């Protein structure tokens, strides 16, 4: 077997930087300057990823992994049966998860950024949205990690290593 390049350095840098920014924001919840800075970084990363999802390399583009809802449902069904197709880039469930995570980070970081403006300082409903979005993000991250583990086991490949090296076996 041989390895081929799948994820470019910018996709990998984005992924692990977002992991770091979100973990920092979560862990530094009570240290405002660190929490806020991590949130701004996460928001900037989302903007970058949206652009890179349109103009980036093949497997970075949304057109490579965003599929129809019925394709996602069929893929998840095949996962439960233990014989899901293998994809070089993100599978249909992974594509949906990417969209959910990008949206979740945008809502979490965006609401946090608004909370420190004069107009929305101390506005309770915005604080509620921010906290709820952060909690939803924790759930999404858990499902994402579970999906990586299941897919890695099913296809006998280390997807975490692939997201570090950018390479997958053919």
Q: Can you give a write-up of this model?
A:
The chain is mostly helical. The chain is 72% helix and 4% strand. The chain has a two-stranded antiparallel sheet with strand order 1-2. Helix 1 (9-27) runs antiparallel to helix 2. The longest helix is centred in the last third of the chain and has 32 residues, at 124-155.
Helices and strands in order:
Layout: E1 3-5, H1 9-27, H2 32-55, H3 62-65, H4 69-80, H5 92-115, H6 124-155, H7 159-165, E2 167-169
Antiparallel strand pairs: 1-2
Helix pairs in contact: 1-2, 2-5, 5-6
Morphology call: elongated
Structural class: mainly alpha
**Secondary-structure element pattern, one letter each:** EHHHHHHHE
Rounded to an integer in angstroms, the radius of gyration calculated over CA atoms is 17 Å
Which architecture does the CATH hierarchy give at level 2? Answer: Up-down Bundle
Number of helical elements: 7
Tell me what portion of residues adopts beta-strand conformation: under 5%
What is the CATH topology descriptor? Fumarate Reductase Cytochrome B subunit
User: In total, how many beta strands?
Assistant: 2
Strand order of the largest sheet: 1-2
How much helix is in the residues?
A: over 70%
Q: CATH H level: which superfamily? A: Transmembrane di-heme cytochromes, Chain C
Assembly state of the chains shown: single chain
Distance between the termini: 6 Å
Low-confidence segments: none
Biggest β-sheet: count, sense, barrel? 2 strands, antiparallel
Instruction: Report the CATH C-level class.
Output: Mainly Alpha
Number of domains: 1
What is the residue-mean pLDDT, rounded to a whole number?
Answer: 95
């Amino acid at each position: 077997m041989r390895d081929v390049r799948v994820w470019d350095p910018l996709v990998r840098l984005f992924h692990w930087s977002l992991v770091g920014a979100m973990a920092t924001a979560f862990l530094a919840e009570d240290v405002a300057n660190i929490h806020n800075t991590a949130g701004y970084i996460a928001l900037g990363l989302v903007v970058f990823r949206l652009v890179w999802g349109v103009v980036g390399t093949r497997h970075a583009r949304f057109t490579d992994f965003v599929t129809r809802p019925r394709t996602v449902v069929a893929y998840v069904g095949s996962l439960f049966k233990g014989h899901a197709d293998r994809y070089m880039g993100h599978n249909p469930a992974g594509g949906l998860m990417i969209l959910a995570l990008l949206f979740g980070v945008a809502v979490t970081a965006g609401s946090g950024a608004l909370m420190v403006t004069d107009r929305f300082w101390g506005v309770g409903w915005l604080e509620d949205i921010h906290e709820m979005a952060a909690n939803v993000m924790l759930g999404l991250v858990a499902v994402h990690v579970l999906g990586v583990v299941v897919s890695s086991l099913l296809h006998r490949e280390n997807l975490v290593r692939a997201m570090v090296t950018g390479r997958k076996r053919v």
